[in-house]
Specification:
Number of helices: 11
Distance between the termini: 27 Å
Largest sheet: none
Oligomer: single chain
Order of helices and strands: HHHHHHHHHHH
Number of strands: 0
């Protein structure tokens, strides 16, 4: 789980520095803090940081987020291919879920048609990660993808099939659930969206334990 945060958030630190070593912050706040710190860096510097194998998890995730938000939709042609290779290389080499979710989201933004089918399910699976910061960020990214564009049945099918598989595997545990917890609530929200796009006939493909919670 993410560490319990101290009373003062990084955003409240007026000098623009990250918190001192003796201040305890949660994981999401650290990523947010580095992203804010790197906000004005040029694209070339951000890419150099993303390529750097020695960069810490939070710094790398922060650099990725800034690149994603500022430049991912702008790159085209040969530059786009080069950056895709950089991101895929980093994805295959990292063991950080914070870096993974930022790359998965960035690739979807760069080429939605090419990457949604593989990266969106991977993001959905992060909703089961033990670290609440990871599954919160993953949910935010998936939710952004499905709300930023017109509802697409192809993408709704990807989300539905991914959730259907994971929920089938946990259906015995769901039998005793009266009130969904935060993680399950995120899954159900995405599931409702996919059913809304695909149609209510999809309900018959779900275990009854899930239908009772919708």
């Amino acid at each position: 789980m993410g560490l319990i945060s101290a009373p003062l958030a990084w955003a409240q630190n007026g000098n623009g520095d990250l918190p001192s070593a003796n201040t305890i912050f949660d994981d999401k706040m650290l990523v947010d803090g580095y992203a804010k710190k790197y906000q004005n860096l040029p694209k070339e510097t951000l890419l150099a940081m993303i390529r750097d194998d020695t960069l810490t998890t939070y710094r790398s995730a922060g650099a990725l987020r800034v690149f994603k938000e500022k430049y991912s939709r702008e790159v085209v042609s040969n530059e786009k291919k080069i950056i895709e290779k950089i991101l895929l290389r980093r994805l295959h080499r990292t063991d950080s879920p914070f870096v993974e979710v930022e790359i998965m989201h960035a690739l979807c933004l760069m080429d939605r048609y090419r990457y949604f089918r593989t990266m969106a399910p991977a993001l959905v699976l992060k909703l089961d990660h033990y670290n609440t910061a990871v599954n919160d960020i993953a949910f935010e990214h998936v939710n952004q993808l499905i709300t930023a564009e017109n509802n697409r049945s192809r993408e709704a099918r990807v989300i539905f099939n991914t959730l259907r598989k994971t929920l089938f595997l946990s259906r015995k545990r769901l039998m005793d659930v009266k009130e969904p917890d935060a993680r399950l609530s995120k899954k159900l929200k995405l599931l409702r969206w996919s059913i809304k796009v695909l149609g209510n006939q999809e309900l018959k493909k779900l275990p009854k334990e899930v239908i009772n919670l919708l």
